[in-house]
Design goal:
Distance between the termini: 32 Å
Number of helices: 4
Radius of gyration: 15 Å
Number of strands: 7
Largest sheet: 7 strands, antiparallel
Strand order of the largest sheet: 1-2-3-7-6-5-4
Strand content: 25-35%
């Protein structure tokens, strides 16, 4: 797949600021959960999800907190994969900008947990928000060229299913 990285980068940055960087995902439910995200995602998962850019997601970090993990070549690297799980009851659609650039689609997810949304920019998945009961999973797969319906997409959603139970 060929991408125009400047336009993808602008859209990804915009959506990341609005979605994945937003820690205010709603009021927490009474029960708190602890998930070692870094331990659940295997090297085989990363080999499939990152595919040709595997060297760009070589280092895992829990980012100083539980229920989250970031895989990147280096801190502040351009290509990365992250997952954060937190309690929340906020409407998932509100985690994304109301109006997206014309080359970014917001696609509803119906086949994982209680459903959610993902952005698709120039045939590449970008940011994902999925609900399971009182938990919200936010993930970004930035500059990894994961096309909807691809083996990488299928493995990514398999990982989400394992994490959310």
């Amino acid at each position: 797949m060929t991408s125009s990285y400047p336009s993808v980068g602008i859209a990804a940055a915009c959506v990341l600021l609005a979605a994945c960087g937003n820690s205010d995902i709603g009021s927490p439910p009474a029960a708190n959960v602890s998930i070692d995200v870094c331990a659940v995602v295997t090297e085989e998962d990363l080999d499939i999800i990152a595919a040709a850019r595997r060297d760009k997601v070589a280092v895992a970090s829990d980012m100083g907190g539980s229920n989250r993990c970031l895989w990147a070549e280096k801190e502040f690297g351009t290509s990365y994969f992250d997952i954060a799980i937190a309690p929340g009851d906020r409407d998932l659609r509100s985690l994304f900008p109301e109006t997206l650039p014309s080359h970014v689609q917001l696609v509803e997810i119906r086949d994982v947990a209680d459903g959610g949304y993902m952005t698709v920019t120039e045939d590449s998945i970008g940011n994902i928000a999925i609900r399971k009961g009182g938990l919200v999973l936010n993930s970004g797969v930035v500059f990894l060229d994961i096309e909807p319906g691809s083996p990488q997409h299928e493995r990514l959603f398999e990982v989400f299913r394992r994490l959310l139970g």
